Each structure stands twice: as structure tokens, then as C-alpha cells.
């Protein structure tokens, strides 16, 4: 839009000046809360409102990202994670085709992934201009990560990162109309840790009424054991030789905290388990396990829901470190470890081997863990919402890079229709099909606009939309044989077995 004046929008805290890019207006680095550092009780505490500013704040560049350790060299080959220094990391970005009140366009709020320890809204794959191009105001946010966002201390409230996300949604409620958005048509969407966060927001009382629709991609509602998170904090404290309190951690050097966090969590992975940070039931912002709250019925029953996974999620967790070959060599030992990781009996392992006789140990372990962590919890949630607008899909297109298959995070370049960029090609390789991006992105746009992405809602036939295995099509019950194995398993500890799966 050559010659067009840079757009200016007023927010409750001051005016911001954006830029026109790719035919839409973009505003970056807008603070939705005060910096969680500096003087006062901000570190490890709930977010405070931002200080108002005079004049017009320039919003051309991404704001600071939350403190985080870098990816290992093996993962950095595949995943981009820009780090932008600065204290004012509780910020967000807005892409809009009509920057002004009156447009009342649907809104999609994006929560990034990264195991609650990495990631940011500045990852290039998350460029929201394609949603704005197609009539959806796109908002992406930063929130506190790792020990800063999910450490558990005796002298500070839990779940600071989740509280940040709620504060960002409150900002959207109060401010997005001025950017052309409709605060009554907000979709919260996330991938991986962002999807886990979205699941928690569905069950968080303080988030009720802040959004109308939700998307969970490759992450199911879950909470971590409080003792597990406490152990992470205590191990970090022991390395730093400080008390395991928020006060002591707030006084510590930020870079030293990140190094200690990286060292303590270096052996953690979704497949292998291990120490890690996560959401916890806190009796306040998250009063109960969100999965159980959603499965018990009633919670978020009026929210339209779309959930999906990739066919080979586990390959991103195993391929970069060369673990596929190691797990295959371990064979029966690895399968025994998967049994312990998934709290299942031998009959489940035997069933998977019978259903997939050509699969090696690594593939069997990977699919077991993927089903345990993602697919079965999503299936439980869908089954608990009879008559509700619930849609399920699978992304099945395999990367052109060796060994990755349809791995975790591969679908993001298709969701955002950003697959022609170098960052998306880190996972997809060359030649990602544009027609698949059109189909995948189009489904998300339709869901944000209407709550119906374009295939049948979940019912007793278990419809799953398949993207990337031929033309998009709907399969009915494609994983029911695997689900039946878990339903008949009687060895899993109480509370870990899937319930309310439809037996047919």
C-alpha cells in the first residue's frame, strides 16, 4: 500500500503506530502487561497492567521475548527460536485487514509451543498476515516460560505463564475492537505447549467468556505433578546454591537461572519423560485437572472446539538426537520403558505389535507415547461433548527431509500458509504442496469465522479429517483399534486409564 499513512490505533494504555505489510496492517510488540522484572513484586508474580504511555508508541518491531535457553544444536537445525533481549516481554502482535472500529472481524489468538520453556510470537512461521489477508484478525502473544512462568515456590502464586495468557485475552476483550476485531468472536489456538495452555484456559474460571472457540493442535489438556515441578526448582536451587524460593530466584542472575534450568532439564523429552516444568492445579486460576474438568462435562460446553495431531508426532522428538536407531536397538527394553511411561499393560504393547507388525521398536514406542499423551485424551474430550461442535483432524503429509515423516510442528507452515519461507522449510524441506496449505489454512479460517471447519462434527462414528494423505478426506474411526486396546487394559493405575470412550 505504497504511500498509505502508517496506521495508528488507540488502546486503553496509549496509541500505537503499526505498518502496512503484505496488504494488511501489523502492530508488533504491544505491551499487554507490565514487565515482569525490575522493582516491586513482579518477578514470579501475577501480571500487572502496563503503565500508560504518552504520545504514540511505535509498533513496527517484535517486542522482547521471554527469557529462555536456546535449543540444542540438533533441534536448532529444524526449529527457529529468535531471542530478543529486554524486560518488556509480556507483549503481543496484531495483524488486521481493517485497523479501525466497526469491522467486527473474527479474531484468532495464537499461543506458541516450545514445551513451556522455549518459543515466542516472533517465530517467522507464525506470521499472521495470511489470516488477516483472509479476513481474520490474528493476535500472537508472548508469555513467561520455564522457571519464570511455571516454577513452583512457597512464596509466590503458581502458573504465572497461564496468568499472562489470561491477561492477554483480557487485553483482546478490551482492545481488539479498535483493531477491527470482534471481541465476541475470539478463537484461542495453540500448538504443543500452546495447545496444553489452551486446554487449561478452557477449564480456567477466570478465562470463561474471553473466547468462543478453541483449537488444540498436538497438545492435550494436562497438568504436571506438583512434586515433580518442585523437584525441578530444588535441583536448580542446589546448582545455584540459593534457597528454593521466589525471593531468592528473583535476586539471582537471569542468565545463571537459564543455564541451571537447561542443565536440570537436559534429559527431558515427551517420549522419555524426565524432569520438566508444567501447569499445576493451584486451587486458584486452575482449580482442577483441566482434562478431568472437560471430560466430566459441563466445562466449556458452549465453546466450539477443534483438535488435531500429526501422524508421526514422535519423530521430531526422536530423529534430531539419533534416538530412532538407539531405541530400535534396545527393542524389548525400550518397549518395557514405554509401558512404564504410558502406565499400560503388556496386552497394550502386544496389541500395537499385532496391529503394526512391520513397525520397529522406535515406531511402536513413539506411537504408544503419542496416543497416551495426545490422541487418547483428545478422544476422551471429544466423546464427552455429545451434540457439541467438536471437530477432529490428522495431518499426514510427510516431510521431504529424511526420517521426519509427518512430525510434530510440521503442520504449522500449512496452518499459517507460510510454507514458502526458509523457517518452514527447516522441517518440510523443499516442495511443500500449496494445495495442502490452502486446505489446512482454509479450515482454520472457516473455524474462526463460523465454528465449522468443513467436515462432520464428532459423533459415535468418530469422523477424523485427514490432511496430506491424498486429497483431504474424512475417515471414520481410523484409530479405534488402538483405542480399544487401552479401553480393555486393566493394569493402568486409577486416573490414568482413558474413560468414556465409545465401544462399538
Automatic annotation (TrEMBL):
Q: What does the UniProt keyword field contain? A: Hydrolase
SUPFAM superfamilies registered for this protein in UniProt: alpha/beta-Hydrolases (SSF53474)
UniProt-listed PANTHER family: CARBOXYLESTERASE
Q: Does the keyword Disulfide bond apply?
A: no
A Pfam family of the record is: COesterase
Q: Does the keyword Hydrolase apply?
A: yes
Q: What is its EC number?
A: 3.1.1.-
Question: Region (Disordered) spans which residues?
Answer: 41-66
- Residues of the Carboxylesterase type B domain: 6-455
Instruction: Supply the enzyme class, top level.
Output: hydrolase
Highest taxon above the source species:
Bacteria
Q: Could you say which protein family the record assigns here?
A: Belongs to the type-B carboxylesterase/lipase family.
The name this protein goes by in its record: Carboxylic ester hydrolase
Amino acid at each position: 500500500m505504497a504511500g498509505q499513512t502508517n496506521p495508528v490505533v488507540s488502546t486503553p494504555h496509549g496509541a500505537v503506530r503499526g505498518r502496512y505489510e503484505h496488504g494488511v496492517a501489523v502492530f508488533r510488540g504491544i505491551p499487554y502487561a507490565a514487565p515482569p522484572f525490575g522493582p516491586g513484586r513482579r518477578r514470579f508474580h501475577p501480571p500487572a497492567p502496563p503503565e500508560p504511555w504518552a504520545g504514540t508508541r511505535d509498533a513496527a518491531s517484535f517486542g522482547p521475548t521471554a527469557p529462555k535457553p536456546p535449543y540444542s544444536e540438533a533441534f536448532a537445525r529444524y526449529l527457529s527460536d529468535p531471542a530478543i533481549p529486554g524486560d518488556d516481554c509480556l507483549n503481543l502482535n496484531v495483524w488486521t485487514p481493517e485497523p479501525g472500529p466497526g469491522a467486527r472481524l473474527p479474531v484468532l489468538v495464537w499461543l506458541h509451543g516450545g514445551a513451556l520453556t522455549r518459543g515466542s510470537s516472533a517465530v517467522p512461521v507464525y506470521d499472521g498476515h495470511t489470516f488477516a489477508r483472509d479476513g481474520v484478525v490474528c493476535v500472537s502473544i508472548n508469555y513467561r516460560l520455564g522457571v519464570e512462568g511455571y516454577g513452583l515456590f512457597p512464596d509466590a502464586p503458581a502458573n504465572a505463564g497461564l496468568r499472562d495468557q489470561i491477561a492477554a485475552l483480557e487485553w483482546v476483550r478490551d482492545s481488539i475492537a479498535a483493531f477491527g476485531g470482534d471481541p465476541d468472536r475470539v478463537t484461542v489456538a495453540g500448538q504443543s505447549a500452546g495447545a496444553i495452555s489452551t486446554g487449561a484456559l478452557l477449564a480456567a474460571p477466570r478465562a470463561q467468556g474471553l473466547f468462543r472457540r478453541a483449537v488444540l493442535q498436538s497438545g492435550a489438556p494436562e497438568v504436571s505433578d506438583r512434586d515433580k515441578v518442585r523437584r525441578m526448582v530444588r535441583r536448580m536451587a542446589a546448582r545455584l546454591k540459593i534457597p528454593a524460593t521466589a525471593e531468592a530466584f528473583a535476586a539471582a542472575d537471569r542468565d545463571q537461572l537459564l543455564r541451571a534450568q537447561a542443565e536440570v532439564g537436559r534429559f527431558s523429552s515427551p517420549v522419555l519423560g524426565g524432569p520438566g516444568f508444567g501447569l499445576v492445579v493451584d486451587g486458584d486460576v486452575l482449580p482442577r485437572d483441566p482434562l478431568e474438568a472437560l471430560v466430566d462435562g459441563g466445562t466449556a460446553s458452549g465453546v466450539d472446539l477443534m483438535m488435531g495431531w500429526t501422524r508421526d508426532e514422535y519423530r521430531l522428538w526422536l530423529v534430531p538426537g539419533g534416538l530412532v536407531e538407539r531405541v530400535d536397538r534396545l527393542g524389548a527394553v525400550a518397549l518395557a520403558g514405554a509401558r512404564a511411561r504410558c502406565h499400560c499393560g503388556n496386552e497394550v504393547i502386544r496389541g500395537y505389535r499385532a496391529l503394526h507388525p512391520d513397525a520397529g521398536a522406535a515406531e511402536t514406542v513413539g506411537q504408544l507415547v503419542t496416543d497416551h499423551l495426545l490422541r487418547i485424551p483428545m478422544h476422551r474430550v471429544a466423546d464427552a461433548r455429545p451434540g457439541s461442535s467438536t471437530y477432529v483432524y490428522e495431518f499426514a503429509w510427510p516431510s521431504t527431509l529424511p526420517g521426519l515423516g509427518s512430525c510434530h510442528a510440521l503442520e504449522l507452515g500449512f496452518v499459517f500458509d507460510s510454507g514458502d519461507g526458509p523457517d518452514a522449510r527447516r522441517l518440510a524441506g523443499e516442495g511443500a504442496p500449496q494445495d495442502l496449505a490452502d486446505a489446512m489454512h482454509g479450515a482454520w479460517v472457516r473455524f474462526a469465522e463460523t465454528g465449522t471447519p468443513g467436515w462432520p462434527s464428532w459423533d459415535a462414528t468418530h469422523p477424523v479429517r485427514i490432511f496430506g494423505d491424498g486429497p483431504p478426506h474424512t475417515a471414520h474411526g481410523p484409530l479405534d483399534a488402538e483405542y480399544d486396546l487401552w479401553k480393555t487394559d486393566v493394569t493402568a493405575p486409577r486416573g490414568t486409564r482413558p474413560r468414556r470412550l465409545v465401544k462399538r
